[in-house]
Design goal:
Blueprint: H1 19-33, H2 43-52, E1 67-73, E2 76-83, E3 90-95, H3 109-119, E4 121-126, H4 138-158, E5 163-168, H5 170-186, E6 191-197, H6 207-212, H7 221-231, E7 256-263, H8 267-279, E8 284-293, H9 302-318
Parallel strand pairs: 3-4, 3-5, 5-6, 6-7, 7-8
Antiparallel strand pairs: 1-2, 2-4
Helix pairs in contact: 4-5
Length: about 325
């Protein structure tokens, strides 16, 4: 039987953007236009602003239920941030966003706690090393180490073998890279699902990245280039599958949910990766949200609540009793 997966073209029509989102986007763009673009600043300046809470995002809440731990595998160690709810049906290995340069796992406590509560999973977020101090492959190596630790210890630590993987933006890139590494290097195909949220899957830049321009709306073309230069020292490796998983062999990977908004410079990354995921013989669903900016799931919008609800449902369904890895 032949099946088809179509995207409704109406989601890309500006008239499909709901009034609440349109109003929020106008305010966000005004705010961003009054700030110095990220690519004109240093990583340290931006990190200090994030830590102080003086940036436009304010102070990130750190929750008491989130705990730090160091895990080890294959002779390597990596810090992780864990949230373990009373009921654990599975374990979600999470990689945070930040362009490989910014943010730490602790800045995502509210997301980690919401995922743990709503999906009934233990969340293990990798506090991977950041560029430019630690360029590629440091972040990917740290994520692989955490995945190896879970492969060896998930049943003993959490009483389940159901593993899901995912992340946002740069974290979605690292999640896809980790899936490929675990399959190719370790013969492990035990992930039950991949939650990939507005990811960057091509460091050589997809058309939507290149064509966005200087308009500062969470990201811009120069800001994406700034992140990429810090992450990858060897430009000839931009399309290496371990750097840009869009070019990887994607066969034998778990069901995926791709989430992205239409006003995200990384839009093409999700469109292309979803298509390649399907073409490789895997199950994949693409959720495109009209007017969604990069990081829109973190904003106080009805659309964000809907997207997060779908994500929580996807993770939860992957962990239902009787579920098996669908590789």
């Amino acid at each position: 039987m032949t099946t088809f997966d179509f995207i409704n073209p109406r989601v890309f029509d500006p008239s499909s953007i709901d009034p609440e989102t349109a109003k929020f986007n106008s305010g966000l763009e005004r705010l961003m236009s009054n700030l110095p673009p990220s690519h004109t600043r240093t990583p340290q300046e931006l990190r200090e602003e994030i830590e102080s809470g003086n940036g436009w995002m304010g102070r990130f809440k750190q929750l008491p239920e989130a705990r730090d731990r160091v895990v080890s595998a294959a002779g390597l160690s990596v810090p992780v941030r864990m949230v373990v709810p009373p009921e654990v049906n599975g374990v979600y290995l999470h990689m945070h966003g930040g362009g490989f340069v910014l943010m730490r796992a602790r800045h995502f406590d509210e997301l980690l706690a919401a995922t743990a509560k709503n999906s009934r999973v233990a969340v293990v977020s990798v506090d991977y090393r950041l560029a430019p101090e630690h360029p590629y492959p440091a972040a990917a190596d740290d994520c692989e180490t955490a995945a190896l630790w879970l492969m060896e210890n998930v049943q003993k630590e959490f009483g389940t073998r159901r593993l899901i993987i995912g992340g946002e933006s740069a974290g979605a890139n690292l999640a896809a890279v980790t899936l490929n590494r675990m399959r190719d290097k370790h013969g492990f195909t035990g992930f039950y699902g991949a939650n990939l949220v507005f990811g960057c899957y091509d460091i050589s830049m997809t058309p939507s990245q290149r064509n966005w321009g200087d308009r500062e709306f969470m990201l811009s073309t120069p800001t994406i280039e700034w992140f990429n230069r810090h992450y990858l020292n060897e430009l000839e490796k931009q399309r290496d599958p371990d750097v840009s998983p869009l070019y990887a062999n994607l066969s034998g990977l778990p069901p995926a949910l791709f989430t992205v908004g239409t006003l995200d410079p990384l839009l093409d990354d999700s469109l292309f990766m979803h298509a390649r995921w399907l073409a490789a013989g895997n199950s994949s669903e693409l959720a495109v949200y009209p007017g969604g900016a990069h990081m829109f799931t973190a904003f106080p919008l009805k659309m964000a609540k809907e997207a997060n609800s779908k994500i929580f449902g996807f993770i939860s369904a992957a962990c239902e009793p009787g579920a098996v890895p669908k590789y």
